[in-house]
Amino acid sequence: MLLHQGSGYRIKDDYVEIMGGVRLRIIGWDRRYDCYPSGEARLTYKDGKMVLWVSKRIPKPKSYTPRDVIGVDVNEEKIVYGDESINVEKSTGISRTERFKVLAELLQKKYSSPRYPAWKKRRGILSRIRYYHEKAKNILVDNARKVALEIVTTAKRLGYAVAREDLTGLKESLRKLTKTYRTRLLLMGYSRIEKWIDWQALKHGVPRVVVDARNTSSECPKCDFTGLEEVGYRRLKCPRCGFEADRDEIGKLNVRKRALKMLKLSGGALTPPTAAPQMTDVAPNRWGEPPSPRGGTLAL
Ligand SMILES: [Zn+2]
Fold it and tell me: If you write DSSP's letter for every residue of 198-223 in order, what string do you get?
């Protein structure tokens, strides 16, 4: 069924109104296209799900030749980005999801006995548990979107490219682990970070490079020696040239170094990190929380 925006369908808050008086609650959508106007839409029904396919017109952005690279390093807790003089640290949001995980587990425990997991049978409890899981997921997704935008706008302002690691290997190793709630969240978080960096770069016309992630935290960003030695908590030192920095910072510098090579750029010469101005920002993100499900779905 083909629908025209305004006369055939209308999106209002968390609902889609289809002409004829049908109101459907939105359970999810691809946020990447939010800022573009909606065009015609097609409504389909498959496997018990109604899907509204909305068309969007996206102008092609102008790109530029980068003069340097912003490297991005991602680990469980932090997203670190910058070059030799810029070092910004952002939270991945994973620690902020803990609260909802705990709430969901408490609820499961409360309504379970060893013989009878009552929570599985009661729809109200089940939907509340789902809601907590959804909340945790939204924290990671929103965080990824916000940090990706910040990285890309920084690169654009400086006329730099953005380089991220190929996290496929990391995701593969996570998939092999037991499917705990945390590993599942992490996997999702990593995918979202990759996706949003790529998308924001494309949208803003910022050149983007994906580099091999192998040894980014054990190679010396200055002299390429592999086998950095630990000299303190998360602090590494090169036994060959004496270069010393935090593990995350080394990751970031190696990502940048590899991207410079791929782009055939020379970049600035590496100066000791102590001589460079440091910018650190680990403040939790203050980005508004996503719209929460309303109405009957939450009632117990
Ligand atoms: Zn070295």
Answer: HHHHHHHT--EEEE--TTTTTB-TTT
Helix, strand or coil for residue 169? helix
In which band, very low, low, confident or very high, does the pLDDT at 121 lie, cut at 50, 70 and 90? low
Q: Output the CA 63–ligand 1 centroid distance in Å.
A: 34
Which residue in this structure is represented by tokens 């580099």? 211
Cα–ligand 1 centroid distance for 290 (angstroms) = 45
Spacing, Cα 237 to ligand 1 middle (Å): 8
User: What distance in angstroms lies between residue 226's CA and the mean position of ligand 1's atoms?
Assistant: 8
**At 230, which helix (H) or strand (E)?**
strand 229-232
CA of 222 to the centre of ligand 1 (A): 5
Distance 227 CA to ligand 1 centre (A): 9
- Among 24-28, 61-65, 212-216, 265-269, the range scoring the smallest mean pLDDT is 265-269
- How many A from CA of 255 to the centre of ligand 1? 15
Label residue 268 by pLDDT band (50, 70, 90): low
- pLDDT for the residue numbered 293: 37
Q: Which residue has the tokens 């050149």?
A: 207
Better pLDDT: 108 or 275: 108
Distance 216 CA to ligand 1 centre (A): 13
Mean pLDDT calculated for residue range 17-38: 82
Q: Please report which helix (H) or strand (E) contains residue 160, including its range.
A: none
Distance 294 CA to ligand 1 centre (A): 55
Ordered strands of the 15-18 beta sheet: 9-12, 15-18, 22-25
- At residue 11, the pLDDT reads 83
| Distance set, CA 47 to CA 12, 25, 227 (Å) | 25, 17, 52
